[in-house]
């Protein structure tokens, strides 16, 4: 949602979805129950998740962005996060683009966020050594005690990010799951191993800047022959069935820990709470509309 809250001029960078318009219903990913359908794959009573209006009743005309919920024994709120868009983002980015091998050294930025904490846990399942960065001491502790990261650091406490990465990953980085861009991406490039993979999932450090940070340390790509690839989850919806079954299994087995902030309602004072929880808290944020 964050990218749709900023004004983008025509002819600028391509966006995965158009800007929000004042006065119109917010449209984003959510969970609902089908009350009527003319589509052969959905029937009344089905529980689904996908792109819809954040309102009590909504009409969905683009069925390709709607998915049937198959694990109703798990909390439905999981389908707004770990079993929904952010979980699929972490899974496809790490497994398909990152192509992990057992023993790989993995770095995840914004590691306690909705994508980061899932990507880190998937890396541990794959047999990798995982380091995460975050912006608070509380989240720093959670990465190691709750999510199983091998090491972590608070980037706000570091004066030299490249040195912090060298300290935590002295042998370098095989896979970097980038959720922040900017100086952290620069520091990671300096520490990549030969043939490494940088998967750019987000640029949260850049969203509010009037002047973009720009690219630095690009010369590292040549001698180390590592790949930097942008990631857009909409190109991986075909993987959803496989992902849902695999991730639901990890959750039931206790291999993936789920953390969510749930806030009821979208009006009034909750708007400020929603903004805080979306961008500053651990795990995913979920809004309840009743």
From TrEMBL:
<dbReference type="Pfam" id="PF16884">
    <property type="entry name" value="ADH_N_2"/>
</dbReference>
<dbReference type="InterPro" id="IPR020843">
    <property type="entry name" value="ER"/>
</dbReference>
<feature type="domain" description="Enoyl reductase (ER)">
    <location>
        <begin position="3"/>
        <end position="258"/>
    </location>
</feature>
<keyword id="KW-1133">Transmembrane helix</keyword>
<dbReference type="InterPro" id="IPR041694">
    <property type="entry name" value="ADH_N_2"/>
</dbReference>
<feature type="compositionally biased region" description="Basic and acidic residues">
    <location>
        <begin position="1"/>
        <end position="11"/>
    </location>
</feature>
<dbReference type="InterPro" id="IPR013149">
    <property type="entry name" value="ADH-like_C"/>
</dbReference>
<dbReference type="GO" id="GO:0032440">
    <property type="term" value="F:2-alkenal reductase [NAD(P)H] activity"/>
</dbReference>
<keyword id="KW-0812">Transmembrane</keyword>
<comment type="subunit">
    <text>Homodimer.</text>
</comment>
<feature type="region of interest" description="Disordered">
    <location>
        <begin position="1"/>
        <end position="21"/>
    </location>
</feature>
<keyword id="KW-0472">Membrane</keyword>
<dbReference type="InterPro" id="IPR036291">
    <property type="entry name" value="NAD(P)-bd_dom_sf"/>
</dbReference>
<feature type="transmembrane region" description="Helical">
    <location>
        <begin position="76"/>
        <end position="94"/>
    </location>
</feature>
<dbReference type="InterPro" id="IPR011032">
    <property type="entry name" value="GroES-like_sf"/>
</dbReference>
<keyword id="KW-0560">Oxidoreductase</keyword>
<dbReference type="Pfam" id="PF00107">
    <property type="entry name" value="ADH_zinc_N"/>
</dbReference>
<protein>
    <recommendedName>
        <fullName>Enoyl reductase (ER) domain-containing protein</fullName>
    </recommendedName>
</protein>
<dbReference type="InterPro" id="IPR045010">
    <property type="entry name" value="MDR_fam"/>
</dbReference>
